[in-house]
Design brief:
The protein is about 45% helix and about 15% strand. The chain is of the alpha+beta class. The longest helix has 14 residues. The radius of gyration is 14 Å and the shape is globular. Pfam families: DCC1-like.
Length: about 120
């Protein structure tokens, strides 16, 4: 029996939470969705530091982060989303997606739904 993938996000970030709700409603997330603050990160094979830095997709013992986690979410959602997900795994789109993800992640506190807590390191929240 295959375990369902797990989507791990920052539950303290309003922008991240809104993004996950959007994906659940409009894309269809075929995974167990959990904020990292209540997840057993050790069992998932990751750390709080990584989970605080980027969204994670955990599947079959592998952890994908950032833009590649989003690509895996899209692939798992099926058509028509899977085509975009597969495209995001290939250069040069992979490189562009990574850069865009890092830009958004660094500025999530400035985006709609973002809060000042999104800008602080986890140790200072």
């Amino acid at each position: 029996m295959t375990e369902r993938p797990v989507l791990v996000y920052d539950g303290d970030c309003g922008f991240c939470t809104a993004s996950v709700h959007f994906a659940e409603r409009w894309i269809g997330v075929r995974a167990r969705v959990t904020p990292w603050q209540s997840a057993d990160l050790t069992a998932l094979g990751t750390t709080p530091q990584r989970a605080d830095r980027e969204v994670l997709w955990v599947e079959r013992g592998r952890v994908y982060g950032g833009a590649q986690a989003a690509a895996r979410l899209l692939i798992a959602a099926g058509a028509p989303w899977s085509a975009l997900g597969f495209a995001l795994r290939l250069p040069p789109l992979r490189w562009a997606a990574h850069g865009l993800y890092r830009l958004v992640a660094a500025n999530r506190h400035r985006l709609p739904g973002g809060t000042p807590a999104c800008a602080l390191p986890a140790a200072r929240r």
